[in-house]
Specification:
The structure holds two protein chains of two kinds.
Chain A: E1 2-13, H1 24-35, E2 47-51, H2 64-71, E3 79-82, H3 88-101, E4 107-114, H4 121-128, H5 144-159, H6 168-177, H7 191-196, E5 199-201, E6 204-205, E7 215-224, H8 225-228, E8 236-245, H9 259-266, E9 278-281, H10 287-296, H11 305-308, H12 320-323, H13 328-343, E10 356-363, E11 368-376
Parallel strand pairs in A: 2-3, 2-4, 9-10
Antiparallel strand pairs in A: 1-7, 1-8, 4-7, 5-6, 8-11, 10-11
Helix pairs in contact in A: 3-13
Chain B: E1 8-16, E2 20-23, H1 24-31, H2 35-40, E3 45-48, H3 55-70, E4 77-83, H4 94-102, E5 109-113, H5 119-133, E6 138-146, E7 161-170, E8 176-188, E9 191-192, E10 201-202, H6 208-227, E11 236-239, H7 246-254, H8 258-261, H9 267-270, H10 277-288, E12 294-301, E13 303-313, H11 317-321, H12 327-332, E14 335-336, H13 339-345
Parallel strand pairs in B: 2-14, 4-5, 4-6, 11-12
Antiparallel strand pairs in B: 1-7, 1-8, 2-3, 6-7, 8-13, 9-10, 12-13
Helix pairs in contact in B: 3-4, 6-7
The chains are: A alpha/beta, B alpha/beta.
Chain lengths: 378, 352
C-alpha cells in the first residue's frame, strides 16, 4: 500500500577518507553491498538519483549516474545526476522526493559520491574555484575559503572577538567526531592546536577548514509501507526539502547575513519544527560559517554565537563538515543518512529520542541553500 | 625479496656536503609559506651546491674520503655505482667520470643508477651480491644529488645537495658488515619528473601513507622477519630523510625510539640530499658507533621502493673513524646565503 508520506527507510555510509586505491565505483559497491544485506536493491529500487559535483572535472566522467547503474547491474532502471554546488546532496534528495510526491515513482535510491584526493590540493582547488562565479571569483582565483576568511575578519572586528574566542566550534566538532565511526578526523584537538596550526587564509587556520576526503553514502526513500518491514533499520519521515538562492556576496548589504539560509529558516514555523527537540546538521565548511548559521537559526543573538555553541545540544553530532569531512557532492547525503541513523538504529553508539531532524546545506557563502526536514515516524 | 647469505661489509665511508646553507624560513618568507609549515617539517636549513658543483664533483669528494678512510688500493675496485637523480648529463654516465678521476682501473663495472632517492640503496645490495659471490673484490657505491625543486613548491624547503660513498668489500676486512638486506618495491607514482621537465612533481599526501610509510614499513618488517630480529635488537636506526619529521614518525610506527634515530638524522641541517640522505645519516652513525652495535639502514625512493639493511659494527671501526672527515665537520663548516644567492647558485635565474 502506498502512503501519501515519504519515508527514509535505510541508509549506508562509508568512512570519509583518502581512498587512494579505490575508485568511485569501488566506494559505491561497498555501499550497495551493505544495502543488499536486507534485500537486493534490484528487487525494490525504481530510480537512482546521484549527487556528485566533480565527476566531469576530477573524474573526467559525464553521465556518471548511468555508469553507476551499469556498474551495479541495475539496468534498465533510470538514473540521473544532480549538481547544485555544495548543496547537491540535498538537491538530489529534493529531486527524489519530487519523483515520489508527484506519484511518478515509489522507491528511490539516493547516492552521494565524491572523489577529491585523486589529485594534489593545488589541482583540486582549481576545480573548487568553479563552485563560485567564473566571471568574478574565478577570474581572480578566489576560493570560498578566502571569502570566509574576510567574513571572519569582519566578524571579529564588528563583534570584538579574539581569534581564540572562535576556536570553540572546531574543538566541539572534533569532540563529536570521536563518536562517529564514519568521520574522517576522529581525534580531539585543543585551543592551542587550533591557533597554532598552519594559516590557510588568514585568519582561518588548518583546523578552521574542512579536510579533503573521498566519500560515498546512500539513502533509500519510499512511499511503499510494505517495504519498510523488509528493508532497513527503522524509518523517519521526510517532511520536505526546501531550497533557495541568494544574491552574490559582492551585492549583499550585510555581509554577515546568509540570505538564502535565513529565508529557509523563516519557513520552519510553517512546519511546526521545534528546534529544541531537533537534531541539527549544519554546513560548517569553515568555522565562521558555523557561527553565522547558528545566528541565522535564531539559536544565538548576532555576534554571540561563540558564547552559546557549547550549550547547543545535538548540533553536528557527526562532527560536521569540519571533522566528519566534506566530500562535496556526497556531504548532504551523509548528513541525511546520519540523522536517519541518529533517530533510528543509532550513529555508532549515539541514539536520540528527538522528534525532529534538520539538515542544512549551502554552496559557497550561501549562494544557494537547502534544508531537509525530517520527523521521527509516528 | 630476500637476501640470501651475504658475505660483505663496509670497508670505508665518506661524505661531502656543500658549505652553503639557506634557512628554510627564508624560502618560506620568499614564497609566503606559513612558518608553522617549516616547523612541522622539522627543517632548519639546507645545503646548497655552488655553481661549480654537481653530482659528479660531490660524488668524487665523498669517494675520495671513503678511500682515504679504508686505505684501499684503487686497483682492487671492480665496480663503481652512482645512484643519482640529478645527473649532469642526461646521456653520458657520471660513474665513469668519478671512477676515472679517482684512478680506478678500466677493467670494472661502472654505471649510473636511477630510482629517485633509493638508487644508491639498490647499488648497495648489488654490491653485497657482487662481493659475496666473489665476482668483484671491492665495489664503490656513491649516492650523490643536487636535488631539484620548483621555486615555490613545498619541496623547495627541503631539496638539498650532498653525497655519500661506501667501499663495500669482504666481510673479514670490514668495519661493519651486512647481516642481511631486504627490498620492497611497487609501482607507486608518488613523485616523478618527466623527460625534459626541469622540476619534479609530487602527489602531496600520496607521498606519505601509500609511498614512504608503506614501503619502509614493509622492507623493515621483511628484514626483521628474515633475520629473526626485533626493534630492540637495533642500537641505531637510519631512515631516508625527506624532511625531519617522517623518519621519527615511521620509527615510532615500527617501535624504534627517537634516541635511536636522532644520531643519524641530518636532514634538519642539510635538507633532503636524495640518494645521499640515508647514507649521510649512516656515515654520521658510523662516525660514533662502537664495536658490536647493530644499525638499521633503510632507504626509500619514490616510484616506489625501500631497502632495509641490518649492519653489525666490527672491532675495526675504532681505527677508521678518525682517518677522514666526519659528518659533523661538514655540518659545522657552513656559510649562510640569502634567497638571491641561492637562486643564482641553483640556476633558478637565467642570465642571457
Amino acid at each position: 500500500m502506498l502512503s501519501s508520506n515519504t519515508y527514509i527507510i535505510s541508509s549506508a555510509l562509508i568512512r570519509v577518507g583518502r581512498y587512494f586505491n579505490k575508485s568511485y565505483k569501488d566506494l559505491i559497491r561497498e555501499l550497495v553491498a551493505e544495502l543488499n544485506k536486507d534485500l537486493p536493491i534490484h528487487d525494490y529500487i525504481d530510480y537512482v538519483v546521484v549527487s556528485n559535483v566533480f565527476s566531469d572535472s576530477i573524474l573526467e566522467q559525464l553521465d556518471i549516474s548511468t555508469m553507476i547503474i551499469q556498474e551495479l547491474n541495475l539496468t534498465p532502471k533510470p538514473a540521473v545526476r544532480v549538481e547544485a554546488g555544495e548543496s547537491s546532496g540535498l538537491m538530489a534528495l529534493k529531486y527524489a522526493h519530487s519523483l515520489i510526491k508527484s506519484g511518478m515513482t515509489s522507491t528511490v535510491l539516493v547516492i552521494g559520491v565524491e572523489k577529491l584526493v585523486e589529485y594534489p590540493t593545488t589541482v583540486v582547488n582549481k576545480y573548487m574555484v568553479r563552485l563560485l562565479n567564473s566571471d568574478v571569483e574565478g577570474r581572480y582565483d578566489i576560493v570560498t575559503v578566502n571569502e570566509a576568511a574576510l567574513l571572519m575578519k569582519l566578524y571579529m572586528k564588528k563583534h570584538g572577538h579574539s581569534r581564540e574566542d572562535l576556536t570553540i566550534w572546531p574543538i566541539k566538532m572534533h569532540e563529536n567526531a570521536v563518536n562517529n565511526p564514519y568521520a574522517q578526523l576522529r581525534n580531539r584537538i585543543t585551543k592551542e592546536q587550533v591557533i597554532n596550526s598552519q594559516i590557510i587564509s588568514d585568519p582561518l587556520r588548518l583546523f578552521d577548514v574542512h579536510p579533503l576526503g573521498d566519500g560515498a553514502s546512500a539513502i533509500v526513500l519510499t512511499n511503499n509501507k510494505e517495504l519498510m518491514s523488509k528493508v532497513g533499520t527503522g524509518c523517519v519521515e521526510l517532511i520536505d526539502v526546501l531550497h533557495a538562492s541568494a544574491p552574490p556576496l559582492t551585492h549583499r548589504s550585510d555581509l554577515l547575513s546568509l540570505p538564502a539560509s535565513k529565508y529557509l529558516f523563516s519557513k520552519l514555523g510553517n512546519y511546526g519544527v521545534d528546534l529544541s527537540d531537533c537534531v541539527l546538521e549544519i554546513h560548517d565548511s569553515y568555522t565562521i560559517l558555523a557561527y553565522l548559521i547558528v545566528e541565522e537559526l535564531g539559536l544565538s543573538d548576532r555576534g554571540k554565537a561563540p558564547y552559546v555553541v557549547t550549550d547547543i545540544k545535538n548540533i553536528n553530532l557527526s562532527g560536521g563538515l569540519k571533522a566528519r569531512g566534506h566530500p562535496v557532492g556526497a556531504t548532504g547525503v551523509y548528513q541525511v543518512a546520519e540523522v536517519h541513523r541518529l533517530l533510528t538504529s543509532g550513529l555508532g553508539s549515539i541514539k536520540l529520542n528527538n522528534s525532529w531532524g534538520l539538515v542544512h546545506s549551502m554552496s559557497s557563502i550561501d549562494n544557494n541553500a537547502a534544508v531537509a526536514l525530517i520527523r521521527r515516524c509516528g | 625479496m630476500t637476501s640470501g647469505k651475504p658475505y660483505a661489509g663496509i670497508l670505508g665511508w665518506g661524505v661531502y656536503i656543500p658549505r652553503y646553507r639557506i634557512k628554510a624560513a627564508d624560502i618560506a618568507r620568499m614564497w609566503g609559506f606559513d612558518l608553522t609549515l617549516v616547523k612541522s617539517l622539522n627543517i632548519e636549513e639546507k645545503a646548497v651546491a655552488s655553481v661549480d658543483e654537481d653530482a659528479t664533483t660531490m660524488g668524487w669528494y665523498a669517494s675520495h674520503q671513503a678511500l682515504i678512510r679504508c686505505n684501499v688500493d684503487v686497483n682492487d675496485i671492480g665496480a663503481v655505482f652512482v645512484g643519482t637523480e640529478s645527473k649532469p648529463f642526461a646521456v653520458k654516465p657520471s660513474a665513469t667520470v668519478i671512477a676515472d678521476a679517482l684512478g680506478i682501473p678500466h677493467r670494472r663495472l661502472t654505471t649510473d643508477m636511477e630510482f629517485a632517492c633509493r638508487a644508491a640503496g639498490e647499488a648497495l645490495r648489488i654490491s653485497i651480491a657482487l662481493v659475496s659471490s666473489g665476482m668483484v673484490n671491492k665495489s664503490l657505491v656513491i649516492g650523490s644529488d643536487t636535488a631539484q625543486a620548483s621555486p615555490g613548491d613545498v619541496l623547495e624547503l627541503t631539496a638539498g645537495s650532498g653525497a655519500a660513498a661506501y667501499v663495500v668489500g669482504p666481510r673479514e676486512d670490514s668495519v661493519a658488515y651486512f647481516e642481511g638486506s631486504f627490498s620492497y618495491v611497487s609501482d607507486t607514482p608518488d613523485f616523478w619528473r618527466r623527460d625534459g621537465v626541469p622540476y619534479p612533481s609530487h602527489g602531496e599526501i600520496f607521498t606519505e601513507e601509500p609511498a614512504y610509510f608503506n614501503h619502509i614499513i614493509n622492507s623493515v618488517k621483511g628484514l626483521m622477519e628474515e633475520l629473526g630480529l626485533r626493534p630492540n635488537d637495533f642500537d641505531y636506526a637510519v631512515f631516508h630523510q625527506p624532511n625531519g619529521r617522517f623518519p621519527l614518525r615511521v620509527g615510532a610506527e615500527l617501535g624504534l625510539s627517537r634516541e635511536k634515530i636522532l644520531p643519524g638524522l641530518v636532514t634538519p641541517w642539510i635538507g633532503n640530499t636524495y640518494n645521499a640522505s640515508a647514507l649521510i645519516g649512516l656515515a654520521k652513525v658510523l662516525d660514533e658507533a662502537k664495536p658490536g652495535q647493530r644499525i638499521l639502514l633503510v632507504t626509500f625512493g619514490s616510484g616506489a621502493g625501500s631497502d632495509a639493511f641490518s649492519i653489525l659494527v666490527s672491532d675495526k671501526i675504532s681505527e677508521s673513524a678518525g682517518r677522514a672527515l666526519r659528518v659533523t665537520d661538514f655540518l659545522m663548516n657552513k656559510i649562510y646565503i640569502d634567497y638571491g644567492t641561492y637562486s643564482k647558485l641553483r640556476k633558478l635565474l637565467e642570465r642571457l
